[in-house]
Amino acid sequence: MNKSPLTPFALEAYLADRKRDVEEHLFASLPAAETQPAILAEAMRHAVLSGGKRLRPILCLAAAEAAGGSAADACCAATAVELLHTYTLVHDDLPCMDNDLLRRGQPTVHARYGEAVAVLTGDALQTLAFEVLASTPERRTGTVARLVKELAAAAGAAGVIAGQVEDIRYAAAPTRAVIDFVFQHKTADLFKAACRLGAIAAGGDDDTAVDRLARFADGLGFAFQIVDDLLDAQEALADGTPELSCLAVMPADAARDWARSLTAQAVDALDGLPGETAPLAALADRLLTRII
Amino acid sequence: MNKSPLTPFALEAYLADRKRDVEEHLFASLPAAETQPAILAEAMRHAVLSGGKRLRPILCLAAAEAAGGSAADACCAATAVELLHTYTLVHDDLPCMDNDLLRRGQPTVHARYGEAVAVLTGDALQTLAFEVLASTPERRTGTVARLVKELAAAAGAAGVIAGQVEDIRYAAAPTRAVIDFVFQHKTADLFKAACRLGAIAAGGDDDTAVDRLARFADGLGFAFQIVDDLLDAQEALADGTPELSCLAVMPADAARDWARSLTAQAVDALDGLPGETAPLAALADRLLTRII
Fold first, then answer.
1. Strand partners, A107
2. How far off is chain B from A124, nearest CA to CA, in Å?
3. Mutate to test the interface with B, among A126, A182, A185, A186 (most CBs of B within 10 A)
4. What is the ipTM of this complex?
5. What H or E segment, with its residue span, contains residue B249?
6. Which of A25, A74, A219, B140 is deepest in the core (most CB within 10 A)?
């Protein structure tokens, strides 16, 4: 990992700034509190505005810059990616899925508003993601069409939802092939879409920007999920249903090595991009250091 | 209702032809049966290919023609509207909503594949709707962006989902205001989107085509829902949870008059459209004659 600039990149300040920007855009995209029915507007706001690292939208904005454009180009795409991610969390928390009552220290949507409202809140957040994405300014004819197709492909039956189906089915006893499938689709596909959408919205070229950022995000998504499994194991969560973990098919040392190697490859993929890559490289290092 | 052509329009043959076209496009849009995970591909096919009148996509195609374009212009939009409608049915049937075990004589998705898969199947059908819609050929820059925004606005937290939230909350004891709200959003908003999307995809002008077709579809959507309530009352369904009905706030005669008057106004709105309106007028008459 020899990509670190001589002057260390001020990642914490960068992330705090970007998080604030993302949250302003999320807030503005949501139905006003007085919208009818009030319970739906309230549940959507609860789901979206209850914290989170905003990692995916920050990746989307940073990818736009790395592709040679500006973060402003990707602001609708970043908002859409986070709305999409939030809808998956609301539905994953449902009693028929993970049955989680708390997320980030707050009651989950179904715990607070009931199951029916939680299903509909997730549905409405997915719809809103595509509505916001379609407001991206079109630098070229076909940009919005491509953004919508890319996000839908990543989020749909061949992407995130495929990953979630297999996660539920094999959580208790995964094989290595299941781990690879779930990590790819449930996690890496949306990381990859975040970076691809940012690059496309910024007018990035496929060869020099979109594909490189996709390789970066793919590796990062896998590494993120491996690190998550290592952290979950350290916390030794005793309660709840068993969660799919790569530690079911490999020892912790092997998982650490896997995450390190994927992160190094991801950072290598940033070579040759036309814009600023220091934030993405620093972010990749930071995600990894959570386990070091 | 003096719009009927001298030669009566052959509606049955028209509907059968269009239904076949719509189902071919739906079939082609779905994941192949061998797609992994197989249970998701199978559940999506079960939900989409288990029959139905295909009324909304047929309206979309007919609207494209009434706006002066061809049905082919609107084929992605029509497919998207039906996928969107199907996702709402899959989620409405869930145990936490209407808890229906049968739809069109077949087990519902949750009854056959379990609740978790049903939630994810509905999610994937919504995603697919936007993916297919984004494949609409762009006659003008911004067409796809507008189509996505229009469908999302109709389907989202200010449209169909708002209607469904209020339907669930007030099914047992609706007021007239609730009836108007639910009929508008749960039913008419998607009828309206079907016609608007068809007209926009066909390059229709806002004043002369899109808005007129929207007025037609709005009236038709209300009339359709009133007729549905009248038919449900005739069938005297004894089982199941109470369903929201306009007959809770008006006698059957008043409901029939309301449906007749809305249909007449809807057909009037077709005046002055640049293309063929006979199928839409005939369809409006047919929906009404179900109660005469």
1. A102
2. 5
3. A126
4. 0.96
5. none
6. A74
Interface contact A134-B152, CB threshold 8 A: yes
- In CATH, what class is B11-289? mainly alpha
Beta-carbon separation of B37 and A168 below 8 A = no
The pair of three-digit structure tokens given for residue A102, joined into one six-digit string: 């708390």
Tell me the domain boundaries of chain A. Answer: 11-289
Interchain CB distance below 8 Å, B158 and A35: yes
Cβ separation A44–B157 shorter than 8 A: yes
Side chain identity at residue B21, one-letter code: D
Nearest-by-CA chain A residue for B118: A96
Asked if residue A229 lies in contact with residue A255, where contact means CB atoms within 8 angstroms, the answer is: yes
SS3 B80: helix
Residues in chain A: 292
pLDDT in tens, A218-264: 999 999 999 999 999 887 655 556 789 999 999 999 999 999 999 99
Helices (H), chain B: 11-29, 38-48, 55-66, 75-92, 109-113, 115-133, 143-155, 160-170, 176-182, 189-201, 211-235, 252-268, 278-289
Distance CA A241, CA B138 (A): 48
From chain B, the residues in CB contact with A165 under 8 A are: 37, 39-40, 117, 120
Q: Is the pLDDT of residue B3 over 60?
A: no
> Could you give the angle at the alpha carbon of B144 between the alpha carbons of B138 and B149, nearest 5°?
160
